[in-house]
């Protein structure tokens, strides 16, 4: 077993995965980035709120309520505040009477779009019978326009 340097903290993840063989990875993590990311992105409605703001350009609270059947105003308000608090979206206020509030993705929020795209691609492939009228599975490149594909390429 390799000793940790003074700067390396013994985390639960390190302890439980210390002897695991690495597959696909070039190095060991201090903590699980998937688990940490799901702490935010894994909350109900979070990805669909990001999807609607980022892909469908739905920026107003009431429009988001309409686009997300089943979400309560309280839950939507909570998700928007959480996403704003961690820097994924920003509140854009227009000083009119009455004041108009819009929501926009920040760079950090924009960087979640490939996650949304890949989940959509997964659903389009394995749940095509529910997603498409013709029930035919689609590949990633069939789903997204040039701008969407360029966004994905930024990460690879």
A few lines on this structure:
The protein is mainly alpha-helical. The chain has helices at 12-17, 33-41, 46-54, 61-67, 73-85, 107-110, 113-126, 128-131, 140-143, 146-153; strands at residues 89-94, 100-105. It contains ten helices and two strands.
Task: Explain what the structure shows.
By secondary structure, the chain is mainly alpha-helical. Among the domains are: 68 residues, Orthogonal Bundle (Arc Repressor Mutant, subunit A), CATH 1.10.10.10; 41 residues, no CATH class. It is 50% helix and 8% strand. The protein contains ten helices and two strands; from the N terminus they run H-H-H-H-H-E-E-H-H-H-H-H. Strands 1-2 form a two-stranded antiparallel sheet.
Blueprint of the fold:
Elements: H1 12-17, H2 33-41, H3 46-54, H4 61-67, H5 73-85, E1 89-94, E2 100-105, H6 107-110, H7 113-126, H8 128-131, H9 140-143, H10 146-153
Antiparallel strand pairs: 1-2
Secondary-structure-based class equals mainly alpha
Report the portion of residues in β strands: 5-15%
Average per-residue pLDDT, rounded, comes to: 90
Q: Approximately how much helix is present in the residues?
A: 40-55%
| Unreliable residue stretches | none
Task: Give the CA-CA distance, first to last residue.
Answer: 34 Å
- CATH top level assignment of the domain at 39-106: Mainly Alpha
Give the overall shape, derived from the CA principal axes: globular
The total count of strands amounts to 2
CATH topology of the domain at 39-106: Arc Repressor Mutant, subunit A
Strand order of the main beta sheet, please?
1-2
What CATH architecture label of the domain at 39-106 applies? Orthogonal Bundle
User: So how many helices?
Assistant: 10
> What's the CATH H-level homologous superfamily of the domain at 39-106?
Winged helix-like DNA-binding domain superfamily/Winged helix DNA-binding domain
Please state the CA-atom Rg, rounded to the nearest Å. Answer: 20 Å
């Amino acid at each position: 077993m390799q000793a940790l340097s003074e700067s390396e903290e013994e985390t639960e993840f390190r302890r439980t995965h210390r002897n695991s063989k690495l597959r696909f990875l070039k190095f060991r993590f201090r903590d699980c980035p998937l688990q940490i990311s799901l702490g935010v992105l894994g909350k109900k409605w979070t990805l669909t709120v990001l999807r609607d703001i980022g892909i469908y350009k739905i920026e107003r609270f009431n429009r988001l309520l309409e686009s997300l059947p089943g979400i309560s105003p309280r839950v939507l308000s909570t998700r928007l505040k959480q996403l704003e608090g961690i820097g994924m979206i920003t509140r854009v206020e227009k000083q009119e009477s009455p004041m108009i509030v819009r929501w926009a993705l920040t760079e950090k929020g924009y960087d979640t779009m490939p996650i949304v795209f890949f989940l959509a691609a997964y659903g389009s492939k394995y749940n095509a019978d529910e997603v498409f009228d013709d029930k035919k599975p689609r590949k990633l490149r069939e789903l997204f326009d040039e701008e969407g594909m360029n966004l994905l390429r930024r990460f690879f």
